[in-house]
Amino acid sequence: LNWQTATEVNNYGFEILRSAQNDSHSEEQSDEESWEKIGFVQGHGNSNSPKYYSYKDENPGSGTISYRLRQIDTDGKFEYSEIVKVEIEEQHLTKFELYQNYPNPFNPSTTIKFAIPSVVTSPDRIGTKQSVQTSLKIYDILGREVATLVNETLKPGNYEVNFDANRLSSGMYFYSLTTSGKTIIKKMMLIR
């Protein structure tokens, strides 16, 4: 998504909102539950010159996807942009991915997204689509497992898991995704 402002007055920033529902959206849609906040881009506060912004949706899914911005002022007032619709064809995932959790730092919950490839690349099964045993675990700074979010056989595709850390103390944590003999580890920060 790319957008620009001509001038800015007390612009705190922009929430990026996405809706994947296939029914039509009106410009004045009030059904807030159908919109998911997928990111935030910091504004420039006050400016008399044009400012340029962009945001990349790393995991949009497929079908008709709608986007809109919620521009927020420093005093909390906000307004929505027009809705933009994008048609995205189903993609065959070829890469095992673990995305950075959002938000990060977080309190008390965060979302972790990952992708399991459509095509298995092991020598004995090249080019085949199959479900694979997948685990997504959380570890503390000492390497102790503190939560298991996923431990099951999953089909190829994009996944999203919410992690609620209410029972954990502030600090650095690691999340590890393992599937098909491969592991990816990323870190996240819980702030109370």
Tell me about the largest β-sheet. 5 strands, antiparallel
**Mean pLDDT level:** 85
Distance between the termini: 32 Å
Number of strands: 14
Q: Please bin the fraction of helical residues.
A: under 10%
Shape: globular
Low-confidence stretches: 22-30, 123-128
Strand percentage lies at over 45%
Helix count equals: 0
Structural class: mainly beta
| Rg for CA atoms | 19 Å
From N to C, what is the helix and strand string?
EEEEEEEEEEEEEE
Description:
The chain is mostly beta strands and 192 residues long. The protein is built from no helices and 14 strands. Strands 2, 3, 5, 6 and 7 form a five-stranded antiparallel beta sheet that branches. β10 (132-139) and β11 form a beta hairpin. It is globular, with a radius of gyration of 19 Å.
